[in-house]
Amino acid sequence: MDAVSSVYRLSLILSICSLxxxxxxxxxxxxxxxxxxxxxxxxAKSSFPNSIAQDPALLLLRQVPYQNGEEQELPLDLGLASxxxxxxxxxxxxxxxxTAHPGFKxxxxxxxxxxxxxxxxxxxxxxxxxxxxxxxxxxxxxxHSSTWFCSHLQTFDHSFNVxxxxxxxxxxxxxxxxxxxxxxxxxxxxxxxxxxxxELKRDVLLDCGFAMDRKTGFAVExxxxxxxxxxxxxxxxxxxxxxxxxxxxxxMFFYELHSHGNASLLIRNxxxxxxxxxxxxxxxxxxxxxxxxxxxxxxPPKLALNPDPLYLAPDQAHHVLCEISSYYPLxxxxxxxxRPVGNxxxxxxxxxxxxxxxxxxxxxxxxxxxxxxxxxxxxxxxVYTCYVDHVSVGSAVRKSITLKVAGAAGPxxxxxxxxxxxAFILCTTLKFFYWIFTVKVYPLVLNLTEEGKEKIN
Length: 457
Known about the structure:
Blueprint: H1 2-17, H2 21-30, E1 31-42, E2 51-62, E3 89-93, E4 115-121, E5 148-154, E6 161-168, E7 181-191, E8 195-198, E9 204-206, E10 209-212, E11 219-226, E12 229-237, E13 242-246, E14 250-251, H3 254-260, E15 265-267, E16 276-284, E17 287-297, E18 302-306, E19 310-312, E20 318-327, E21 333-339, E22 347-349, E23 353-354, E24 358-359, E25 365-373, E26 383-389, E27 397-405, H4 413-456
Parallel strand pairs: 1-4, 2-3, 3-7, 8-17, 19-27
Antiparallel strand pairs: 1-2, 4-5, 5-6, 6-7, 7-10, 9-15, 11-12, 11-16, 12-13, 14-15, 16-17, 18-20, 20-25, 21-22, 21-26, 23-25, 24-25, 26-27
């Protein structure tokens, strides 16, 4: 499949490059030209599942100023190459201007590839109770007389996703008709947070917005999925202004929802059970589109060195421990460095050991890494540093400790001053006791002795 996709992409690029200069320039003046894939299921033989076919396609995202304004028509001499099959060019008008996001314009040297996919779409009435009877007369309109498509686009920097439901506005076409499909976007559902990270015990906002080309009832649904399982998180019927389901600790903003199409979900006090994918689905009569948002919980590691302070006797073997605690997710990478006194560069310690991971009640993990040292007097003031790499931090976190070897260095000025103070206090104390003895105790003893002699005589 990868090889086939590469061939298709190459043919698409050749198709774009073969456009006449005048036509290509005219198209870019009308809007943004986006390379895309037209994806559809192919009927299966016997009991095998359907296969997927994808063909190169082009989307012209028109910069429509307003709904009733004058729109410039496409040039007649598009000159599309034969590699682009008939019906694979889409002239898209979006009066909400959501698809006019500047992130869809190709930068000069893109570091990432955009994602664009377009499929056939079949309007149908929703079966969930919070998305039924969204019109005032509780009847849903029939859309079967039109041709529909659904597109999914992602900007070059992967920071903005939009899913759009298109209604074809051009007339009937034959199988070999090379004219573009003229479409009008009926529903846009978008997110500015396709993937986001949060730490434990924080509040996090999952961004989801929508725009419709007409005033009608709508419904919002949030679902959670993780490792094959999932559940309903929030369900709201906008036509009835009714919340059908809301998980504890979740919140929506109804004024923003009705006035600006802000269907974002606030989750308070995030813990491990919140990690996973959240699907925001917007329903309007017979139509729906959705966005998936990946929420990752990350907790940075905390470091402690043991023993601290590090005092050892010469030739005394000892373990130095780096205790790494309260991190999530599981994987960490630990390394040790040492910098001897007088050296400007540190040396890598090749031999270290690590304990098994231990899980805490809140779902975070602990692990201990340690090294064994047997210092000599020349290792005095060597600095040992533990480095920890983890997905939650941009660069490695570290913790350092300085080794002190007993008897490896003479007394410092602080030691000398301390000894002097101790000697002064000791001398003063001895003089005080000597004075007490000579002035008070000795005369008293002498008098008692003299009095004893007189009594004997």
